[in-house]
Specification:
Layout (H helix, E strand, L loop, with lengths): L37 H5 L20 H8 L4 H13 L12 H19 L5 H10 L4 H15 L33 H7 L5 H4 L1 H4 L5 E8 L2 E7 L11 E10 L1 H9 L7 E9 L9 E8 L1 H7 L9 E7 L3 E2 L2 E2 L7 E8 L10 E2 L1
Parallel strand pairs: 4-10
Antiparallel strand pairs: 1-2, 2-3, 3-9, 4-5, 5-6, 6-9, 7-8
Helix pairs in contact: 2-4, 3-4, 3-6, 5-6
Length: 353
Amino acid sequence: MFRTRHTLATTLLMVSALTLAGCGSDDDASTGTASSTAEEAGARSAEPDEPEAAEPAADDDTSVVDFLRTADVDDALVNRLGEVGDANGYGLGVDVATDLEARRRLASTQVETCRNVAVGHRTWEGLQASDVSAGASEEQAAAMADFLREEFCPHVAPYEEAALPKQTLGGPAQDPRGGRGLASPLSWWEARYQRVSWSKACATQTGQPTGEPVAYRLSDDAVVCATVPPAKSLKKHLINVDVVFASPVGEARARDAVLALLPSDASADEETEGINADWSYLEGGCLNVNFGSERLESVVAEVKKDAEPWAHAIYYSDGATDDGAVGAYTGKVKQILLSTGANEPGLTGDLTC
């Protein structure tokens, strides 16, 4: 099988997207926005407030159906997409029929594709190249892209952002554990920073959300974009965020933005230049900076047993998609992915963007 462009880990509790059929799967490095990660899905609280209710059985999960309904995608359109997918290896294999459930999962993935193209986060040419790099033939990728562009996406409703809430600002400069943004609870963010429209401030740069998106005005020239973690154990703490600047800034300004979101004892440590994974069609680069903070370990311990006194920030000069950095790293920073834990090179010695 060839690798799926990306998987969904959403507040909708979607199951993983279909794997494109073709040549063998890879272990993908995480590259996208702070919307949601495996650590969000799997982390468990060190100090649970109360026992968590059992997760609903898979047979009772209607999240994919509900998601498609909100996107105005009915089963007839799902089946048309499934037929194209089956014929071109976007399922169990070329000309191997998939069932309705599997086709719905593929459709939910492609709804995100449509919306990312609509807001300018992706292009059709880039999506085709991405599928080819994942193992599809040129003809297979073109057939899927043509169907999406001409038949599927015109029916997909745009993402509808909820109205911005009323806020009472003036909250404390740090949360009860000394955090100043990263791994802080959503309630602290709501009292500290002005909410702004996620669709206007973040969508083009970070791509469409796979959960509940939020955006905050960090400064005159920067916003913070994030997705509220779906895992109950994370208690609505933002353990991953993107910082997006109005225009590219220097590394000193980028470092200051990161430090503003970390405990006051944080400092920049190791810097490592990164490259895109070898499967990516993009020839991009990034800069990873690890930040040390003893207080951060206590902050993160609120929601994670394996808390570390580290965070890492990945600097992008242009931006990033599921295929890695868009363009080379130039020393200027347009977007920062900030997350808990240190980020180190892999077995090959390369750090992946």
